[in-house]
Design a protein that fits this description.
By secondary structure, the chain is α+β, with helices and mostly antiparallel strands. The protein contains 13 helices and 20 strands. Helix 3 runs parallel beside helix 9 (367-383). The N and C termini lie far apart (66 Å). 43% of the residues are buried. The model has no long low-confidence stretch (mean pLDDT 94).
């Protein structure tokens, strides 16, 4: 829509408020609202001012004035506001220079798309994330000087088969939650309600289902879209999911590993590059892909440790990336083989369907930065003709001596990933997509607020292991 069409859309829907949404550095939506009377065509150029000093990872209080400039193509009616409300996603600009704010993650993604075009390789990068999540009936947690705990519960959790009181059974066992019909799958209607809201908001949904873990693990798959649009949709996906679940008296989390002893939640991300309407990943090489696609895979594999700091950016991410839970820790590629970190789907022979699936990301990432990092790694592979090596057809979960076989593993911790990013990020700086300031700020934020914050706190399990030493 154009700005004029957005105003007409708002009038037709009796809108009374406008909600300005933008994404902070770690990847969470922030917002503020104005009455519709303050919403004019001029605001699409001039923006609306706000204080950016309290936004995580942004600039200091002595230089904090910022502008939120709405993107008219993102306008929808917010499905969760009591007052009729128009929702718009914004770009962030400096009010003095009118230039885009360099630490705005959406601007990073826009630069990544522009760099792809300027490289001459292609003009469109498509992304298709499969974000998984858990739905719990109860969650509580706390951490202070003398205690720390968490507690989650789900009516369909395998641990509740022996619960006293009304108990009708039919609970998916650990690692057996994939595709059972109701009553074992107790979340069918809830997921369908989420899908309906997503479709009203303009998200095309391809399928929904229960995932492998017990306790309400779910997946809803969106149809692929170009990089920035897909990042916008993933933010909307999480917003809709959390709010639909909440209005049903439950709670949703996108934490990669909230439940011990069962599969975690990932975000397998399908990717392809097109040029002038033609798919560049289809060809006559292995599994029907092109040499360009193989080089793209080579770039992802080469820089996997570095981009993990952006695609798997939390300490909890590495509770999922451990052997034994179908976790994509093996840095190899294959067709159909889900034990490799990069898979080439074989569902269709149509060249337009040819793509790769990068399996290690998880939904705690900032999608604008994660998608951009993967694209930049892939472009680096194409530009430098990085050979991904031979494909791996064997079950890598059972393969012994992986290092001896030349198969590297994903980082074992966020600290390892951050160290890798610090040592290997020149490929991200091309075209000024990421900047040295962004990389250093990301490293500092993550080390200070997450790695070091966790390092200095006793863990409850340490009491079990060490209290009686």
């Amino acid at each position: 829509m154009t700005p004029k069409e957005v105003l007409e859309f708002a009038k037709a829907n009796n809108v009374e408020m406008v909600d300005f949404k933008f994404v902070d550095f770690p990847g969470q939506w922030q917002h503020f609202g104005t009455p519709i009377s303050e919403f004019t065509e001029a605001i699409f150029e001039e923006g609306s001012g706000f204080d950016g000093s309290s936004i995580r990872g942004w600039q200091a209080i002595n230089n904090s004035d910022m502008l939120a400039v709405p993107d008219p193509s993102t306008a929808i009616i917010d499905p969760f506001c009591k007052t009729p409300t128009l929702s718009v996603v914004c770009n962030i600009k400096d009010p003095i220079s009118s230039e885009p704010y360099p630490r705005d993650p959406r601007y990073i993604a826009q630069k990544a798309e522009n760099y792809l075009k300027s490289s001459g390789i292609g003009d469109t990068a498509y992304m298709g994330p499969e974000a998984e999540f858990f739905v719990f009936d109860e969650v509580s947690f706390d951490q202070n000087a003398q205690s720390g705990y968490y507690f989650v519960d789900s009516e369909e959790g395998a641990w509740n088969t022996g619960k006293e009181g009304p108990n009708l059974g039919h609970k998916p066992r650990h690692k057996e939650g994939y595709f059972p019909v109701p009553p074992v799958d107790s979340m069918e209607d809830l997921r369908a309600e989420i899908v309906m809201e997503m479709q009203k908001a303009g998200i095309i949904v391809e399928k929904q289902h229960h995932e492998v873990a017990t306790a309400g693990q779910a997946e809803i798959d969106m149809r692929f879209d170009s990089l920035v649009k897909m990042a916008d949709k993933l933010m909307l996906y999480k917003y809709i999911t959390k709010n639909v679940v909440k209005r049903n008296g439950k709670t949703a989390t996108f934490m990669p590993k909230p439940v011990f002893g069962d599969n975690g939640s990932g975000m397998h991300t399908h990717q392809s590059i097109w040029k002038e309407g033609k798919p560049l990943f289809a060809g006559d090489e292995y599994a029907g892909v092109s040499q360009t696609c193989l080089y793209y895979i080579g770039g992802i594999l080469k820089h996997a440790h570095a981009i993990a700091a952006l695609t798997n950016p939390t300490t909890n991410s590495y509770k999922r990336l451990t052997p034994g839970f179908e976790a994509p820790v093996n840095l190899a590629y294959s067709s159909r083989n889900r034990s490799a970190s990069i898979r080439i789907p074989m569902y269709s022979n149509n060249p337009k369907a040819k793509r790769i699936e990068v399996r290690f990301p998880d939904p705690t990432c900032n999608p604008y930065m994660a998608f951009s990092a993967m694209l930049m790694a892939g472009i680096d592979g194409i530009e430098n003709k990085i050979d991904p090596g031979p494909a791996m057809e064997k079950n890598l979960y059972e393969l012994e001596a992986k290092e001896a076989a030349g198969i590297k593993m994903m980082p074992a911790s966020l600290e390892e990933a951050l160290n890798a990013l610090e040592a290997d990020h020149a490929f991200l700086l091309k075209g000024d997509v990421f900047t040295e300031d962004i990389i250093q700020n990301w490293l500092q934020y993550k080390r200070t607020n997450e790695v070091n914050a966790l390092r200095v706190r006793p863990h409850p399990y340490e009491f079990l292991m060490y209290y009686d030493v």
